[in-house]
């Protein structure tokens, strides 16, 4: 994926990459900005040769021998013009208190950034290609640093401030770069990468250079410590990850105490201009050799690429690759690029070329949203904005949501676009109205109607009226649904009513529109008009309308219409509101429709049998005419029904069961029994009737009638045993009569007799047991002692019941009711308490004689 930087240089801190320049592949891992401000002016006149990065500032070396201190925005803070030619390398200590620089002029300068006390300058007789300060140079008493030319020199302060130089290594070519971390120094020369342990004062490893056929000065080595023990090496086509480990004491002998293990090594198909760590990954600045394109007979280089790699044992996985449009990249070679990493926790990388400095940063949520919008992943962008609204600076819900809505409309997904308006537009009425007009222009008003605000902060009434008009002209059912669902205060009800009436005048036969018009009249509180329409349509909502708005005055002349529409609901409603619609009014209005009158009076009788008693005589004929199954229950429960009138009606219509009931109720039991036996010919019913009446003469009549009918005799034998003596029936059976199932009937009589005997015996046992238990209880109560106290008085003479002289004996009578008498005060004929005997008689009034002595 190639990222092209815009050509315009801004006056601000940094120039951002244009969002329109994203590639078509996956989302980039990093974002890129060109370091601007005074860096632009510096590199117009000079060219960058190297750079070192600290948390608070940048140090840029140039080909004119200058070292410029810049703030993080590219503004010049200070400038050192110490060298005459190209600055090869710059080094900072960990505290960023001191800075060292070296050049081909053989000079090394150490500058204090906050003090000049320890400023140092060293002059050598050969070009110095590399320099590195002790990580704790500011605190280190020896003020150690190393330089690299054809040998590695350790410089430190000796006695009286003189410089002492110690050669750590030489004889293997020119040293091109040095990196010092804690007590380990790594450097690269023509043979490879060496590492020196300052604690043990000896070299611990040599990592041999792979690509010996390539010129070292054209494809220099890149070194980077990812932590205190891990060194990253990038050289030409190869990358190696080395870890410093402690050697076991048993293996040490004459070997160094530490050794280096190469944990990953792989070859690239490009050249490496720089590398740095990114968590568990690597950031590699790669250079592609010249393309086939030529300018003035010379090959033209490709854009450098910043790649993120995941190292494996002997291979790697490429996670991303961004091609950078560095200014003048066509003329640069691998050695012209450098990669400097931010030393803090922030993911920031500086790509340095002679005329350009580009900053690669970790992408934030704003960048993620921008990429999603550019790649038309609007739904994902909207979700990302929704989840990260508080952290976003360049994007917001409204901006992204409106872009998504436009995209959906262009794609033709109008329903999703309208649904998205709910989430995006919220309660912004102006934006809502703009979107409604947008949907109107594309002919999709119906779609957005389901989602526009219907409560709270609503739109102007004209918007809702426009939508209703659209539905009225194209979709009557949808229009009715909207009117039903929308609150009536959203629009001007009169305007919509006039539109509906106009449509009905043109097309009168539209029940749906009539029903909708009734709803509109209801919203407008013109209930009389709504009621007329509901009755005309015979719509069930008429009853809810009447009850909800108490329209009982309006239905005084519409009772018959309501009963004709739904007799049961109408009768229920009228009876629940009989104080508003009197019973006699309803009955009078229903005189022309006896069936409807019956429905009303029947429900009235079920609700309260004591109401409308003056209509019970009328109801006899109505039940007989329209509802015979309920006639007999009515006759049973009504106490206001004229029996003679009812008997006449039933006899006229030959209603046998009702006639039998009435005869029985009027006292003519014999005639009723006669009808049961002759008209119904049902022995079981005749027996049940005789049981109910419990009249011996009635039983005698039944036996006389049944004695000539064997089936009746069988029925009587089976049921008579518990009411009269079976012998009466058996003696009167004619001799020789064949009676079906006689044996079973006689067996049943005997079983019933045995059952009665068993019940009597059981009851007797229970009675005897209860009597014995009560007698024992009474005996225990009467044998119980009765307490007599000194302060008790005789109930007759009212003197103390016990004498003061305990030696004189006195007879005392104590009753179980606790009344006490002297014996001489109580007549001898009295065996019960004279006080209690006047009030009640019971076992507690009996006396117990007590003698004291």
From TrEMBL:
Subcellular locations according to the entry: Endosome membrane; Late endosome membrane; Early endosome membrane; Lysosome membrane
The answer to whether the entry has keyword Transport is yes
Q: Name one GO biological process term.
A: protein targeting to vacuole
- Membrane topology (UniProt): Peripheral membrane protein
Extract the GO molecular function terms from the UniProt entry: zinc ion binding
One cellular component term (GO) for this entry is:
late endosome membrane
Q: Which Pfam families match?
A: Beta-prop_Vps41, TPR_Vps41, zf-RING_Vps41
Domain RING-type, first and last residues per copy: 794-837
At which residues are the CHCR repeats?
571-715
Q: Could you tell me the keywords of this UniProt record?
A: Cytoplasmic vesicle, Endosome, Golgi apparatus, Lysosome, Metal-binding, Protein transport, Transport, Zinc, Zinc-finger
Q: Which family does it belong to?
A: Belongs to the VPS41 family.
Q: What does this protein do?
A: Plays a role in vesicle-mediated protein trafficking to lysosomal compartments including the endocytic membrane transport pathways.
Q: What is this protein called?
A: Vacuolar protein sorting-associated protein 41 homolog
Q: Which organism is it from?
A: Eptatretus burgeri (Inshore hagfish)
């Amino acid at each position: 994926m190639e990222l092209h930087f815009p050509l315009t240089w801004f006056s601000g801190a940094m120039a951002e990459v244009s969002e329109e320049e994203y590639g078509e592949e996956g989302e980039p891992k990093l974002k890129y900005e060109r370091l601007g401000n005074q860096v632009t002016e510096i590199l117009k006149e000079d060219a960058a040769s190297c750079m070192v990065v600290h948390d608070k500032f940048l140090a840029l070396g140039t080909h004119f021998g200058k070292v410029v201190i810049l703030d993080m925005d590219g503004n010049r803070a200070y400038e050192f013009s110490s060298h005459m030619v190209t600055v090869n390398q710059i080094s900072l200590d960990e505290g960023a208190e001191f800075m060292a620089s070296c050049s081909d002029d053989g000079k090394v300068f150490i500058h204090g950034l906050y003090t000049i006390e320890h400023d140092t300058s060293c002059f050598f007789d050969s070009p110095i290609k590399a320099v590195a300060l002790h990580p704790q140079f500011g605190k280190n008493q020896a003020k150690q640093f190393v330089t690299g030319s054809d040998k590695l020199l350790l410089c430190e302060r000796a006695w009286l401030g003189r410089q002492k130089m110690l050669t750590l290594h030489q004889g293997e070519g020119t040293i091109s770069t040095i990196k010092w971390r804690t007590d380990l120094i790594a450097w690269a020369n023509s043979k490879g990468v060496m590492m020196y342990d300052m604690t043990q004062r000896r070299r611990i490893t040599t990592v041999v250079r792979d690509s010996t056929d390539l010129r070292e000065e054209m494809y220099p080595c890149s070194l980077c410590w990812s932590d205190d023990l891990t060194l990253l090496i990038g050289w030409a086509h190869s990358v190696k990850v080395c870890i410093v480990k402690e050697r076991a004491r048993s293996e040490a002998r004459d070997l160094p105490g530490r050794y280096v293990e190469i944990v990953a090594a792989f070859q690239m198909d490009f050249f490496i201009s720089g590398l740095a760590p990114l968590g568990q990954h690597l950031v590699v600045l790669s250079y592609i050799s010249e393309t086939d394109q030529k300018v003035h007979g010379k090959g033209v280089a490709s854009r450098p690429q910043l790649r993120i790699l995941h190292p494996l044992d002997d291979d790697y996985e490429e996670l991303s690759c961004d091609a950078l449009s560095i200014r003048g990249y066509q003329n640069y070679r691998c050695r012209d690029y450098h990669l400097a990493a931010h030393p803090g926790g922030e993911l920031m990388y500086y790509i340095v070329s002679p005329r350009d400095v580009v900053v690669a940063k970790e992408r934030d949520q704003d960048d993620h949203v921008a990429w999603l919008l550019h790649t038309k992943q609007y739904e994902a962008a909207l979700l990302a904005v929704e989840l990260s609204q508080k952290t976003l600076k360049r994007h917001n819900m409204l901006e992204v949501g409106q872009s998504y809505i436009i995209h959906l409309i262009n794609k033709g997904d109008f329903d999703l676009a309208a649904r998205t308006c709910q989430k995006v537009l919220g309660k912004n009425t102006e934006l809502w109205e703009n979107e409604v007009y947008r949907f109107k222009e594309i002919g999709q008003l119906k779609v957005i109607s389901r989602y526009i605000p219907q409560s709270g902060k609503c739109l102007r009434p004209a918007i809702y009226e426009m939508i209703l008009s659209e539905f009225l002209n194209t979709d009557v059912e949808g229009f009715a649904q909207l009117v039903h669902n929308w609150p009536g205060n959203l629009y001007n009800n009169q305007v919509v009513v006039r539109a509906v009436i106009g449509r009905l005048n043109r097309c009168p036969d539209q029940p749906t529109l009539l029903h909708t018009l009734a709803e509109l009249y209801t919203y407008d509180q013109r209930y009389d008009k709504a009621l007329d329409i509901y009755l005309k349509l015979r719509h069930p909502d008429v009853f809810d309308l009447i009850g909800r708005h108490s329209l009982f005055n309006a239905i005084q002349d519409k009772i018959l219409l309501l009963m004709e529409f739904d007799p049961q609901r109408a009768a229920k409603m009228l009876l629940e509101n009989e104080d508003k619609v009197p019973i006699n009014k309803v009955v009078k209005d229903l005189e022309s429709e006896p069936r409807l009158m019956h429905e009303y009076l029947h429900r009235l009788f079920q609700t309260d049998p004591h109401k409308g008693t003056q209509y019970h005589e009328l109801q006899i004929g109505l039940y007989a005419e329209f509802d015979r199954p309920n006639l007999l229950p009515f006759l049973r429960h009504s106490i206001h029904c004229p029996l003679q009138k009812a008997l006449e009606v039933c006899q006229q219509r030959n209603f046998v069961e009702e006639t039998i009931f009435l005869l029985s109720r009027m006292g003519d039991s014999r005639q009723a029994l006669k009808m049961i036996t002759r008209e119904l010919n049902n022995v079981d019913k005749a027996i049940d009737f005789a049981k109910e009446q419990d009249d011996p003469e009635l039983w005698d009549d039944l036996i006389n009638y049944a004695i000539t009918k064997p089936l009746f005799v069988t029925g009587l034998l089976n049921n008579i045993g518990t009411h009269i003596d079976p012998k009466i029936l058996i003696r009167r059976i004619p001799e020789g009569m064949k009676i079906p199932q006689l044996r079973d009937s006689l067996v049943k009589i005997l079983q019933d007799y045995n059952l009665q005997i068993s019940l009597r015996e059981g009851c007797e046992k229970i009675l005897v047991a209860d009597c014995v238990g009560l007698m024992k209880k009474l005996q225990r109560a009467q044998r119980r002692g009765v307490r007599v106290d000194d302060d008790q008085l005789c109930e007759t003479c009212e003197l103390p019941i016990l004498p003061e002289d305990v030696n004189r004996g006195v007879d005392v009578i104590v009753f179980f009711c606790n009344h006490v008498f002297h014996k001489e005060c109580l007549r001898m004929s009295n065996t019960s308490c004279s006080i209690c005997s006047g009030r009640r008689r019971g076992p507690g009034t009996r006396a117990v004689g007590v003698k004291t002595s």
